[in-house]
Amino acid sequence: MLDGAVFFAIIKEENEVIWMVQDRNPEYFLAIASEKSISKAAERLHISQPYLSQYVIHLEKEFGVRLLDRTKSPLALTAAGKVYANYLEDSSQLYEQLLQDFTRLNASRRQTLRVAMSNWRASTLLPSILPAFSQEHPEAHLELLERPTSEMFRLVADNTVDFAIMNTNLNTPDYLTTETILYEKILLVGNRGNRAAQALAEACRAGREPELSVLEHERFVLLYPEILLAMRVNNFLERKHITVENALYTTNATTALNLTAENYGFCFVNETAVHNAPNRGELLFFDLDSPDLVHPLSVVYKKKRPLLPAASRGAASATAAWSTAVRYSTAKPASEAMSEAGLVHFFFSRARILE
Known about the structure:
By secondary structure, this protein is α/β, with parallel strands linked by helices. Helix 5 packs across helix 11. The longest helix is centred in the first third of the chain and has 29 residues. It has 11 helices and 13 strands. Helix content is about 40%, strand content about 25%.
């Protein structure tokens, strides 16, 4: 939101302030940059073209540089014009965020934390941390958006949420920051009554390398290929030369676990699903000890809205230990995972907007 805002550009020379330019209508220049035409921008802004032209001339005189290249069609920004447009966009985002934070603060001293997670992630993570969070900080209010992982970046970018908790890869947009909570293993899950699962379990208990060829003709319940976990699983299967001949695809890891519990086939899930797995007594969880089956669980937020120091410490402490260790029924050692207390601390720290 730019209407009514006043922006100042500080002009420096050798780190000394020379003069300051005041722009009471930054939306005017951004409209010109967007429309690439003064006449179209004037029409969009409901002002006259001569008035908008004078606005630009005044700005260029104040700055002492050309902002528009009038020799090109459509109208183009000069190098200085691009710098100024970027400055206005960044400033407007910060100004809008300032208004939002003030609104949220003044509405009530009760602090609101807006978080995005996938349906599955919320169902496995929140029961572990939210009761303790609410008990320790009753004044804090959580707004939860459960959306597909594919929507998380957009929700953070447009300020719909303060941050998202999700598995990430190297394709995070430049305008977002990720802080890794932990590196999460992806586990193979089989039914105790399945002969192939029994063979894998026996090899693990005996300290032998499990022979994955027993999976060749087994049915799998897999996540759709565009899901990050599925991408890593597919890479692993290709490296091990395992061809899945019979597969049912789903978007829901809980569906996969439920079907595996009914001995419908094997599936792959994140290790944090183990302690909340439905019908856990029917399942065998296998850590296949492959770098392909590890991915970061991260907090994602906008670069223009860095986490408070306390939040960063809370996220860092989340990598230290898992307060209740998860042990797989294959007798493989439990891996490190997030500290529930650390995540509670992180949640509250992020909720503290202004105090």
